Give the backbone structure.
Amino acid sequence: MSTIYIGITIIIFLWILGSLHRNRKNRNKVICVVKSNCSGCGRCIKRCRRRILEMVKDETGIHAAVKYPKKCTACGDCLIKCKFNALKIIKRNSK
């Protein structure tokens, strides 16, 4: 029984270390929307856990846009949901 607890503890510890490493690695990156590829389906907006994306309407039509780039962790969840290759990860501007 104690080996099960040790195994679960190790798995949780490795999961926490992995998430910390991903956050540190992606600190200098942000999601960017390619307007010409965006169809306006909104799948990326539903998937984003940090709610940084929003739908905007302009002269080119309806598409997703990054509303809060400082909150973006570049986790890639929205990239997975986008079927039109309208999202990409780029380096942050060093301001």
Observations:
- Helices lie at 2-25, 43-47, 77-81.
- DSSP finds three helices and four strands in the chain.
